[in-house]
Amino acid sequence: MYRTKVSNKIAPQGLERLDPARYLVGEDVEAEDGVLVRSANLLDYSFPKSLLAIARAGVGVNNIPLNRCSEQGVAVFSTPGANANAVKELVLCAMLISSRDVTGAVRWVKNQAASGVDLETVVEKGKAAFVGPELYRKALGVIGLGAIGALVANVALDLGMDVYGYDPFLEGSGQLQTGCPDRTGKAARKRAEPSANPGYCPAASDRGAWNRRYSTDSRNSYIEFPNLQDSLESAAGL
Questions:
Q1: How far apart are CA 216 and CA 230, in angstroms?
Q2: Residue 98: which residues within 8 A CB-CB, separation 6 or more?
């Protein structure tokens, strides 16, 4: 029987695939043969002599000591794309919330309700302060066109946005190519903007600063957000 330690909450649908007759699975398992992990930090994890493999529920492995795994013959597995749709939806959520100031509007309505005023009257008068710009026809730059980036690009196109992408691992220039399929095989209506700087994602100019919004859905240890913002604005001449 294989002993499998679970370092984070794993969906029951996944754990059910491990036959109880062959696998002992739990958070308190010792002398484990395998480890299932999501975001738990294993960098200082002391390997038992029995350890054969570590499986990451997700794509990033920056929380796993790869060098020690290589030295001790421990196999490391990841699951690229397993949570891509969930992340895509959160990216879309962040775009809508930041563009239309949804959190500010909610906070304002709660404050008005707490003050005892007639909500219908004040909301009708004050809602214009939270209109914000629409995403439609705005330009979106997507840096990294893997499982998540391709889905984000496609959903943005479905919203009527102008999408520009860059990924150095794509064939050719690395910029998003017309007709490049996403991971579901859907033909994406994507465009590339020729530029001397391959990382340049042009922004629409019709509303100026409204279009210069930045969001990173990468892991903090992979990217320094202020440097990314400075690089993009410098390339765009902002």
A1: 13
A2: 213, 215
Task: Quote the DSSP letter at residue 31.
Answer: S
Q: Which residues contact 67 (CB under 8 A, 6 or more apart)?
A: none
For residue 158, give both structure tokens. Answer: 């479905």
| For the chain, domain boundaries | 2-78, 84-236
Q: Place 83 in a pLDDT band, splitting at 50, 70 and 90.
A: confident
pTM above 0.70, yes or no: no
Alpha-carbon distance of 156 to 134, in angstroms, equals 12
CA distances from 77 to 5, 37, 44, 68, 169 (A): 15, 10, 18, 15, 21
Q: Provide, rounded to the nearest whole percent, the portion of the chain with pLDDT above 90.
A: 49
Q: Is the pLDDT of residue 105 over 80?
A: yes
Is there a common fold for 2-78 and 84-236?
Answer: yes
At 191 the pLDDT is 40
- Say which CATH superfamily domain 2-78 falls into: NAD(P)-binding Rossmann-like Domain (3.40.50.720)
How confident is the model at residue 72, as a pLDDT? 96
Q: Within 13 Å, how many C-alpha atoms sit on residue 131's CB side?
A: 6
List C-alpha distances in Å: 127 to 95, 106, 115, 133, 135.
19, 11, 17, 14, 19
Classify each residue of 42-81 as buried b or exposed e, where b means 16 or more C-beta atoms within 10 Å of its C-beta.
Answer: beebebeeebebbbbbbbebebbbeeebeeeebeeeeeeb
Q: Into which CATH architecture does domain 84-236 fall?
A: 3-Layer(aba) Sandwich (3.40)
